[in-house]
Design a protein that fits this description.
Layout (H helix, E strand, L loop, with lengths): L1 E2 L5 E2 L5 E7 L4 E8 L1 H9 L4 H20 L5 E7 L4 E9 L3 E8 L7 H4 L2 H5 L2 E8 L7 E7 L4 H12 L4 E7 L4 E8 L10 H10 L3 H6 L2 H8 L5 E3 L3 E2 L1 E3 L4 H11 L1 H11 L2 E4 L6 E4 L1 H13 L8
Parallel strand pairs: 7-14
Antiparallel strand pairs: 1-16, 2-14, 3-4, 3-12, 3-13, 4-11, 5-6, 5-8, 6-7, 8-9, 10-11, 15-16
Helix pairs in contact: 10-11
This protein binds zinc ion.
Amino acid sequence: MALQPAANIIRNMSDILQRFLFENVPIRGEVVQLAATWQAVTERHDYPAPLRKIIGELMAAGALLAATLKFDGTLILQLHGSGPVKLIVVECTAGHAMRATAKWDGEIPENDETAGGLRTLLGTGRFAISLVPESGKQGYQGIVDLDADSIAAAFEHYMATSEQIETRLWLVCDDTRTAGLLLQKLPEREINDIDAWPRIGHLAGTVQAQELLTLAPQTLLQRLFHEEDLRVFEPRPVYFRCSCTTERVTGMLRMLGQDEVRSVIAERGAVEVHCEFCNRRYVFDAVDSEQIFAAAVTAPSEKTRH
Ligand SMILES: [Zn+2]
């Protein structure tokens, strides 16, 4: 079996989530900065620049949302479009392992201005957020219409309509990094300081793209909120990991059936399965295929999820 030796896990100390909490008002926040995790996605596919930017912002949004949720398994953000971009998928596990992919059709100009923003690239569409539990229990999915000029606006709209949680989001992405800042009103508590939400939102809104991308999160928070009483937690690592494995791919081939796999091998000499997330190619020749189906006789009940 020929396997491409591409690394499936990429880690870097600079890729982190930083949680913070305002002491006297029920508002919490998260900062995310991704470099290696983001580069692992862009190195594997040659995405046009305007699409790359949207994927980067959606990755930052996905990491921020995952950081605010209690869940096991995987959080999946999907943008379904009707424009040149058909689909963008970002996944983040409870342990903050991320991967992402996108599908597009036709030409997307490299220049940001002619390509337009989210609305031009995706048209009307849907924004879906799912939680797929590790345990195989019933998952959760929320879907809203995609009707926004930016990922941040689409995300804020989703949180307001689907989750009824007031959320503000600032996202930035350049060629090597993507980053985001999230503020969320804790829904279970009353705000006595009624100015707090607009005041803190205004302070957060003064963030500059370069600050968000490059400053250490603690320095950034100090700079933005130095007049507020802030509690800052230990940063947590985020990393790239693709969950595709030979076992999952052979499971898929078993589902396809021996006759189908044999006919592809007779025609093309091998079956090739391509992972759209990490670009890994799994190639099975006639000998591999016979082994897969011989093994299936002795182990028929393997779980499959690619
Ligand atoms: Zn993969």
